[in-house]
Model the fold of this input.
Amino acid sequence: MRPLRLIPHDLDLGFIGKRKYFFVFSSVLVLLSIIVFLINGLSYGIDFKGGIMIEIRTEKAADIASMRKALRGLQLGEVALQTFGQPNDVLIRIQRQDGGAQEQQQAVQKIKDVLGQGIEYRRTEFVGPKVSSELFLDGVLAVTLAIGAILIYVWFRFEWQFGLGAVIALTHDVISTIGIFALLGLEFNLTTVAAVLTIAGYSINDTVVVFDRVRENLRKYKTMPLEELFNNSINQTLSRTVITSLTTLLALFALYSLGGPVIQDFSFAMIWGIIVGTYSSICVAVPLMLYMNLTRRTTLTGDADTASGTS
Amino acid sequence: MARFSKPKIAFIVLVSLGGLLFAAPNFIDSKTDAAVPDWLPHKQISLGLDLQGGSHLLLEVEVNTVIRDQLEALVDEVRAELRKARIRYHGLGRDGASGVKVTIRDATKTEEARGLLRKLDAQTTTSTDGNTIHVTLQESAIRDRRNAAMNQSVEIVRRRIDQTGTREPTIQRQGDDRILVQLPGVKDPERIKRLLGKTAKMTFRLTDERGASLDPSRPAPAGSQWMPSTDSRSGPAMFLVKKRVMVSGEDLVDSQPGFDQRSGQPIVNFRFNTRGAKKFGAATAANVDKPFAIVLDNKVISAPVIREPILGGSGQISGSFTVQEANDLALLLRAGALPAPLVILEERSVGPGLGADSVASGKIASGIGMVLVVVFMIAGYGIFGLMTDLALIVNVFLILAVLSVMQATLTLPGIAGIVLTIGMAVDSNVLIFERIREEVRGGMGPISAIDSGYKRAFTTIIDANLTTFIAAVLLYAFGSGPIRGFAVTLAVGIVTSLFTSVMLTRLFIEIWYQRKQPKELPI
Done:
């Protein structure tokens, strides 16, 4: 059986030549993400906002209207009800209650009293204000440190120019992921932060593969113009980039469609992040290096293993 | 082609078989497991609360109330001491979070007063500021006191939860003032929360008979205080209760729920220790025909009249309870009082139904994800893809084996981590195979192309995996609960996939090559 070739080996696409379009596209994407974020904000889940979330399953299709009326009667502030998955699965969200933790617990009890019998409580989550602000800070810290650590790693393995290019591409991916969450009003919670961090790891992974090839080619072809050299490096690794993205996307689509509601937002973030991350590695990170005063001399000091070609 | 040495082959085979062996317990039911000899591995992956159902509670102990109580007691001692010595003072009260201050009216007596106050408590320091004396608790004393209160709280929480019959609860102290409680499989989290929400400080006190003729909205007379009743249907809403405690709950040795023989009402029977029995006997003997109050957490739960002296040291509380309330009260009294109130900061409870559904959908998603990747790799790389797929299957077993041996907790995001690893694990092989293709195109023979492919892709593979590993480590450091489960499977997956995709596939390819000796690589 002859293996199928998704990307012909002699494919030569002019990524570097079209870099202006990519830069414009990416700038617009990042700007729009920031604008949407500023206008819409993120719809934080209870992890970061505090509050109560209850997932119930009723015996018959849920009567949302009467439930809503009953719960509004409790005067617990903002109450949101929605069915998801099946008509008898209901998600109830209640804003954080004034007062201390005791008030929150009483609110949960009141809700259970009002909803009455014949209801399966599948999930009850309550996050107090103290914990939610800690979780939020931890999330911000984790993402910042991850980007910082990756920058340091790439800087040690390559030159600083590579590190900077990688981190710009990475920030681009993170911001546009936040942008799509703000645009679609998807819930931003701890799981989403996990997704963002995984996207960071994946995106850098993609970038590093292309960078490795750029470095190798810099040693191999000492006189080739940088523009051509970068373009060749991208094309040589394109097959791998596409195939790995595809296998990962295949696994993620399985998660997205079959993994259940909790995992769905996570998988969505990951799918988006992998598409954006793959794009940014090729079309942002590498072309950016043209503007970073990369000299061949510096690249030769990096690694003792100078590529001596294919002997 | 660099041939593997015998020890290397043995290592690869042993690790792979070890993976199968240690992952195996997860695929058999408990009946079959009982039949497996003891020397074989039995450890299964422990499922997180989100997969098996249960409650996660993060509690905060309000330890500052312990220090405040101690300072209140110190204020009383200072007052008593100065009165005894007939030193006139004013402005006696708490001074900040860790001290008491008092101003002496007669400046010449300040030093005398300071001398007296210094002797009150060995763990205080005194200082003067004009006529004002500051008595401050030492840092170490506060720390010890807080620490003791925390340890005691953990112990009481453990006793209360053990009494409810919850299996395998985890109760851990976290940081300075928090307790993490994990209750797998608990059916009624509300009851546990109710039990933990009560301090359960019980006291027996006399009621102040003037209460009936006084207005509860006015301040209580000296020596007494107003307390709400838990049962306003069958009595007054507020009781005027003496501040002095006859006997406290510390002297209880046992309490059990029961039923009143005449009325059939649920009640709580209790028994004092010798000291408590003596005190209770003396107090009841001196106050026959007077009402007394049984006070729980500053609420009157029952206010019976003393018919006759109670000398045997045991009695009963009847306060129009439901059966559940009587059970809970008896349990709280048995387990003892918390030194400080507990507050629930975070709760995450998952019912068993949702947990089982999550496991089922996780299994389906990983199965389908796996099949898609397997098919894709065969389509993309033929026989080499098939070898990658075999390695991928070994990889999944290795992940399960490591998780079982480490007894790491598998959560729903953890399952997502495994699925993601399935997608990403083949990356290393894609890198290698693409390299081999290039080398073949460059005119290399099969052996050197394979050699060169593995060798030159290796640094890239390490770079790519290390960066993802960094993200996983940070997720573990800053994540909580289920997210940590994701970080663990991601990190474990990176390590095992390095083994399977670099070493195991290489062994497969070598064996295949030895047997077929192809002139050209079908890649």
Chain B has a mean pLDDT of 88.
